[in-house]
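Quick one: structure for this chain?
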Amino acid sequence: MPKRIAKLLAGMREHPKSVRFSDALAVAEHYFGPARISGSHHVFKTPWPGDPRVNLQKANGNAKPHQVGQLLKAVDRLELSKAAETVPKRKS
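Got it. Here's what it folds into:
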């Protein structure tokens, strides 16, 4: 993971209520690719159906706090699934 993304993620976890929209967008695009934009919503495709969904909206230059929480949950889920894929399976 690039240093910039790691730094942004750390800041988002520390202060989820004051995350710049552009920073949240950069993190979401790094993990989930480009957004589908529908009005003010930036919607990202996830490799799983349902929650946590990744949808970002701008509110006074910042991302909405509850959407930052959803983004963090989605990033954690994606990282967890990637980690599980790399663990070697034991032979029976």
